[in-house]
Structures are given as C-alpha cells and as structure tokens.
Amino acid sequence: MRVDIWSDIVCPWCYIGKRRFDQALAGFDGRDEVEVVHHSFELDPSFDRDRPQLLLDMLAAKYRLDPEQAGQAEARVAAQAAADGLGYTSDRLVGNTFDAHRLVHLGADRGRGAETLQRLYEAHFAEGRPVFTPADLAVVAAEAGLDPDEAAAAEVGISAVPFFVLDGKYGVSGAQPASVLAEVLREVRDRSAAQEASPG
C-alpha cells in the first residue's frame, strides 16, 4: 500500500498529523508493506522569502484577531501538540516554505526524506528556529544527515493540508487521531486484498 501525504513545514496540524500517522503506522500489522511518500504544499506562497514574520503577528493580521485572541488560538494548537507528546513553541517566525520543501525533496532523493521533514518540523515548532533562509536550511540539512550544499523541488494541487492519499484512491484530510488513521490503514489494506482476490 502506498500513502501519499501533502503537508507544509509551517502547518502545525501537519506536524501533529505526522505524529499521529507515525503512531498509527507503528501499530499497524502491515506497516512493512506501506510505502509513505511526502509531497509539498505551500499554504501561502505569497510570503516574502526574505522577510519572515512573527507567528502571532501573522495570525492576528490574517484572521483579524487582536493579540490576545491570536495567543489564545495558538495556545489551543499548542495544547494539541503537547497532548501528542510534541515539543511546541509559539515564539517562532513564519515565512515562505518553498526552499524548505526543496530540502525535503533533496532528502527524499537521498533516502532521507522522512528524517528531513521531521527535522524541519522539530526545528520550527519545538525549537522555534527559523527554517526559511539558505543558511537556516543548510544547518537543518546537516542535522538530517544531508549535504547542506544541495537542493531540489516539486509541486502538487491539494486544497488543504495535511492530506493523506492511500493506494492512490482513498483520501483523508486533517490531523485525524491515530486511531482513525490506523482504522483507515486497515480498511484500505482489506479492500485492496479483497480486490486482488476477486476474479476480474
């Protein structure tokens, strides 16, 4: 079974969704037969590549919130991350993720795509480090076991992230609980097995 996942580096629900999917997959009895492929999705390609901004300022402006409301909204996401055992800080910058996605693709080309994506998530969400400039990304690349001097890219049209596609047919949107993702893995495996077993 193949699972395609679209996500963005600065999407907290993608960070949470990856943890939940990893947990679901770890407990799935057919995990050795699952191929996971990560794809890039930029939530906001219009972000200035050279000018990251403070997260809470961006949230307030984008959603027309006052600073207290923005902080409360972010605190709810932080609580979800903590509940899933993830490090999380709201004191971070957000910016254009095009080059970060290029780094994930380079990692995939070198057999370290999942590690590169995880390292980017941890640097951004848990450590509050910027992951937008070539210098920032070179450090993350080295931490993920890559040559920090390389880069590559790709793009696909999905309307929301995280988005998982199983066996090229079944879609699941959002950072669903691990139990839901585990059930979907079982259901898709069982459907695929039934289709293979049925004549014609």
Explain what this protein looks like in three dimensions.
This protein is an alpha+beta fold and 200 residues long. The chain has a domain at 1-41 and 156-200: Glutaredoxin (3-Layer(aba) Sandwich). Helix content is 48%, strand content 12%. The chain is built from seven helices and six strands; from the N terminus they run E-H-E-E-H-H-E-H-H-H-E-E-H. The chain has helices at 12-26, 55-63, 67-83, 98-109, 113-126, 134-143, 178-197; strands spanning 2-7, 35-40, 53-54, 93-94, 163-166, 170-173. A four-stranded mixed beta sheet has the order 2-1-5-6. Helix 1 (12-26) crosses helix 7 (178-197), helix 2 (55-63) crosses helix 3 (67-83) and helix 5 packs across helix 6 (134-143). The two termini are 20 Å apart.
